[in-house]
Design brief:
Strand 5 (110-113) and strand 6 form a beta hairpin. The chain is α+β, with helices and mostly antiparallel strands. Helices cover 29% and strands 24% of the residues. The longest helix is centred in the first third of the chain and has 18 residues, at 3-20. A 6-stranded antiparallel β-sheet has the order 2-1-3-4-5-6, with helices on one face. Helix 2 packs antiparallel against helix 3. The termini are far apart. It has helices at 3-20, 58-71, 123-135; strands spanning 37-46, 49-55, 88-95, 100-106, 110-113, 119-120. It contains 3 helices and 6 strands.
Length: 156
């Protein structure tokens, strides 16, 4: 048997497996361009008190992303979170391609992502967010030259 016949004979099973669907094929619509988070905008509301902070620095954005991974929402509440009073945060992640992702936290008990269903969060974990923002000033106030967008790979 010639060398080419041996190569073709050994390659045939791999080709058949690929064509039969045993290998995952990504379609063009499933591919997403590489994006980075260039800004995080946070709006805080508690009754009549409200404030907004914008974060551009890598360190600031990393702290906020760490919190969003840490909080870990679970289970749909029986009560209506829209009626809950107390601290409310709207955290908007702004990506390099112009897209956005919105995290809403209400009364240190509930969170939803992009207007989806409200989910419960641990109140002890939620308190970390208010401590984080009390220690971390807005990046917009740090420099007169304006913010410098970081290069951060989103992990969410």
């Amino acid at each position: 048997m010639g060398l080419w016949k041996k190569i073709c004979f050994c390659s045939l099973p791999l080709v058949l497996l690929s064509l039969s669907g045993c290998c995952r094929v990504l379609l063009q619509k499933d591919l997403r361009p590489y994006r980075i988070i260039t800004q995080v905008s946070v709006v805080y509301e508690n009754g009549a008190l409200s404030a907004q902070r914008d974060f551009y620095r890598e360190e600031s954005i990393r702290h906020i992303l760490d919190y969003l991974r840490y909080v870990d929402p679970y289970g749909i509440p029986r009560e209506d979170p829209e009626l809950a009073t107390g601290r409310c945060y709207s955290i908007t992640l702004i990506y390099s391609d112009g897209s956005q992702r919105l995290y809403e936290q209400r009364a240190d008990q509930y969170m939803r992502i992009d207007g989806g269903d409200w989910m419960r969060i641990e109140p002890q974990k939620a308190l970390y967010l208010s401590g984080l923002f009390s220690m971390m000033p807005s990046d917009a106030s740090i420099t007169d030259a304006g913010p410098v967008p970081p290069l951060i790979r989103p992990q969410i």
